[in-house]
Fold this protein.
Amino acid sequence: MYLHLGGDVAVSQKSIIGIFNLETASLSKITREFLKSAQKRGEVENIGYEIPASFVVTSDSRGNRVYTTQISSQTLLNRTRFMESQG
């Protein structure tokens, strides 16, 4: 199953490490350092042009990715739960 993150981006649910609320997660210094480091490595993909509400961390055979999206973490979580109940 795939999770739609916005725009033309969907990721395999199996590759998802975590879904995070950007506002609350970025209060942590460790999270800010993680995001800055991922940005430097070219692992961050911004989806859309609006202010992001959440970020999704993935890992698969192609490597690690961090997707920032304007879709809330709660909405993304609800989508994954819905798909699991259908599967």
About this structure: The mean pLDDT is 94. The two ends are 8 Å apart (CA to CA).
